[in-house]
Amino acid sequence: METMQYPKFTPEMKKTHKILIPNMAPVQFRILAAAMEQAGYACELLENCGSQVCELGLKYVHNDTCYPALLVIGQFLDALGSGRYDLDRTALIITQTGGGCRASNYIHLLRKALVKAGYPQVPVVSLNFSGLEKDSGFPLTLPFLRKLLAAVYYGDLLVALKAQTEPYEMEKGAAKALQDKWLDVICGWVRQNKGYSGREMKAAMPKIAKEFASIPVQRVPKVKVGVVGEIYVKYSPLGNNDLEKFLDSQDCEVNLPGLMGFLQYCVYNLAETPRLYGGSFLEKHVPGLALQFIESMERTVIKVLQDNGYHAPLPFKELVKLADGIIGRGDTMGEGWLLTAEMIELVQAGYENIVCAQPFGCLPNHICGKGMINKIRELYPRANITPIDYDPSATQVNQENRIKLMLAVAQERLEESTQKASVSVQERAAVQVPAAQDPASQRPGAAIQPQPSTAGLVQSVQKALSGSEDSKNTERMKKNAKAAV
Known about the structure:
Layout: E1 18-21, H1 26-38, E2 42-45, H2 51-60, H3 67-80, E3 90-95, H4 106-117, E4 124-127, H5 142-165, H6 174-191, H7 198-213, E5 223-229, H8 231-235, H9 243-249, E6 252-255, H10 259-277, H11 281-307, H12 316-322, H13 336-348, E7 353-359, H14 363-368, H15 373-379, E8 384-390, H16 396-432, H17 454-484
Parallel strand pairs: 1-2, 1-3, 3-4, 5-6, 5-7, 7-8
Helix pairs in contact: 1-5, 1-6, 2-3, 5-6, 5-7, 5-11, 7-11, 10-11, 12-13
């Protein structure tokens, strides 16, 4: 049987082709695009959305295929058919996980779809760390990898700062404007080949957090919601129907665990698999060195958030332990044990209301996410978790109604806890400040007169008694004086 030969992205194409990037994580990928531009590649981060994207994916990919694959391929085909690009000088880039997840096969599905749609000349670049495309003309050099890590560090920080500031800001849009400002600044640094070293990031991050902390806010109790799930549906507005925007419209604070946690999870699994099933010494220990490098900046991000009064995620070393006794670390398909650990971390941090976003039919997510919910509820009774399936046949209205049901329970619990806290404060105040005995003071609007402390009352009584004794002595002296006269 003759094998289909697909065009490869060659080093010479670096000067002639524009690379289109699918928009999975908008903030992090914008900085990644700047890193690619600095490396000499012409690229563009796609922002085309709409129902036509999904329809094109369904047209050229089997409908049983993973939903993220449908969207990514549909977004590419929609862009190529827009007339905005020279099809003979355009390339596409897509990530491959290298694991048992169907994401490893996206590139083959994409290439077949390109041929069917009439774009056989368009090459596809594979961005992977497992050597799946050994003859790729897109080499992953050490400087580029450092810029890629910087994109994730900076992106995670900006996402966390905006998410924890925006719901409470007194001037609407201030947090978003500041995030856009710093995105422009950081992308400018990266294009100038600076701002991505450990020293530069450690100097820049406190300044960024300090500016966010200076935004005037009014901290009032709000429903806190965490979002976990399959990586594409979790982060991509196209994949989750703008879930973060919808939760913001419901007056919630949203916690979206950082993309760096997923990268650490992938590196950790490179060593955990040979430890569990056998492997060489290097396979077991080299990934640990990479994790140590990543953790050095992770500590900086955590410290910067904490120093400026924001919630910070757990260090990855502690996150790993949260899933112990619930799911094994050998479960590395898709998001694997990380998905379970993130849900537990969110519940412990006060984000007990969780949306578990998953593509319909995603086996890893149904086991590691949906399958773990009952166990998590046993351990944490207040965990309010709802799984939401995303699929071409699932309607946005149905998805949002299910989330609203979860939010209704969350709002009821918030009001109960707020009421209990208010009663507790009033009870403490009643103990410290006794109610006035004067009936007039009980009238509505009457000012509460400050009451003397116990020590003050004793002093007042002693003074009064002392004063009465003095008056008695004065009367006695008057009588003696009259008798003498």
